[in-house]
Structure formats: structure tokens, C-alpha cells
Amino acid sequence: MSQDPLSALAWLVEAGADEAIGETAVDRFTVRQPAAAPAPAAAAPRAAPVPRPMAAAAPIAEPSGTIGTAMELARAAASLPELKAALEGFDGCALKQRATTTVFADGNPASRILFIGEAPGRDEDRQGLPFVGRAGKLLDKMMAAIALDRGSAYITNVINWRPPDNRDPSPEEAAMCLPFLRRHIELVNPYVIILLGAVAVRHVMGRSDGIMKTRGRWLEYNVGGAMVPVMPTLHPAYLLRQPAHKKLAWRDLQAVAQKIETMRTA
Asked: Whole-angstrom Cα distance, residue 134 to residue 122?
């Protein structure tokens, strides 16, 4: 047989060989036991889970510092003079920094007929009283039309300091004044409230409807557990720009006069 491995392999294939045989004979009659499966490796001990630090419980929401101060000051006021002093000592509203004075109220609180406007204008800022400019003169005429004046009604605003350029107060500015306004209403304890303009309706009643949708419709405001009738109407400054709408305000005022008469005779 050729010593060439390839030639020898070819000869074996031609001879019918189909498997390679080693030098040691293989006993094919002995039943082989299946090889034992290798013992599984001992699982590495699992590390005890590291406890995750518990997140601190979210604190119960509290009023922000400045608003909280406003609420405390307002709540502590037991009379209108005390409330006015608290407002004059409160520096949490940025409007106060540019205002000449704090505009508190005017009229007779004992009347329990409460008019609430929006914010002081230039004339109000100078004199320290609400509604003393052109809009104030028109308001005086509106009140006179239903037999009221500043001796038989009481007037205040949502905002106690003049916004620059007579712009609408921002939500943040209003939020600083609202605790004082709510306490103001509680101390006056009115039996009827007249809201002058959309800003007053939005912040007193929490309604964002346009003034044309809310005016002339009786609403209610809770004062110490009693529901007080509230009439939204058009602001005198708006009526100066839109005199044709004075007839709408006149209808609202007639409804107020009827309500006052009914409550006085009840």
C-alpha cells in the first residue's frame, strides 16, 4: 500500500470502508451506560437586595409664602380699620411698589349695599379713594338713578393698587389681593353685591364668561354661610367708551333696585 496518506485514503474508500478504526479494538457488544450529567454548579448566593431609600412623602400643598401671609393678615383683621391697616402694611403685591397710595374703600359700609370694581386708576391713585375720576362720576349718576349715593352704598375694588397704564391686573397680582377682598366682604356682610365689569366677576365669582354673558343675571356669593345675591353689570369706564350700552346697565340697576326694595320690606 502506498505510503501517501491521500492515496491510502482513496484506496480505502474504493474498498468500501465507511468509518475510521483506531488502533484499539472497540467492544460493540457492551451496553454503555449513559454518562452522568455533570452536577449543576452551585448557584452563587444572591445578594440581598439593597433597600432603596423611601422617597419622602410629598408635603401637603400650602399657600405660597406671600399669599399665606396675605391670608393670615386678612383673617386676623376683626374690623374694617384693622383690614385697611393690614393692607397698608402688606408688601407682597408688586403693584404697591409703583402706586402712590393704597385705595381701600369709600361710602357707608353700614348700608350693606356693596359695589365692587376692578382696580384704581390715575385719579384714584392720587386721592386714595375708589371711583373718583370720570368713571367714578358716571358711577355716582348710576347710583343716583336708583336712589343711592356714597352715603347709602359702599364701594371697593378687587385690586387695591393701581396697575401701570390702567392695564388689567395679572392673576398673580389679583391672588395677592383676594384674601383681603374676601375678608372685606365678610366684614361688610352685604345683603346685595353689584360687580362692575368682567375683572370683578372673574375674581369674585371665579367666572371667565364675558361680561355680556353674565351681566343682568343674578348670581350668589357665600358670606358666612348665607347666600348673597350678586348682580354683574357693565363697568362705568366701559360705558364711557360704549355709551349705547348704558341701556343695558340701566336694566341691571333696575333689577338691583327691585331686589333692595324687596329685601328692605321682607
From this structure: 11
Give the type of residue at 142: M
Minimal CA–CA distance to 226: which of 265, 193, 179, 266?
193
Write the CA distances from 109 to 7, 190, 260, integer angstroms: 127, 8, 15
Q: Which amino acid is at 127?
A: Q
**What pLDDT shows up at residue 54?**
42
Q: From 2.40.50.140, 3.40.462.20, 3.40.470.10, 1.10.260.40, which CATH number describes the 65-265 domain?
A: 3.40.470.10
> In whole angstroms, what is the distance from residue 175 CA to residue 94 CA?
12
pLDDT value of position 158: 97
Q: What's this model's pTM, rounded to 2 decimal places? A: 0.76
Return the H-helix or E-strand segment holding 117.
strand 113-117
The 3-state DSSP composition of the chain as helix, strand, coil percent (nearest 5) reads 45, 10, 45
pLDDT in tens, 190-215: 999 999 999 999 999 999 899 999 99
The model's confidence at residue 15, banded by pLDDT at 50, 70 and 90, is: very low
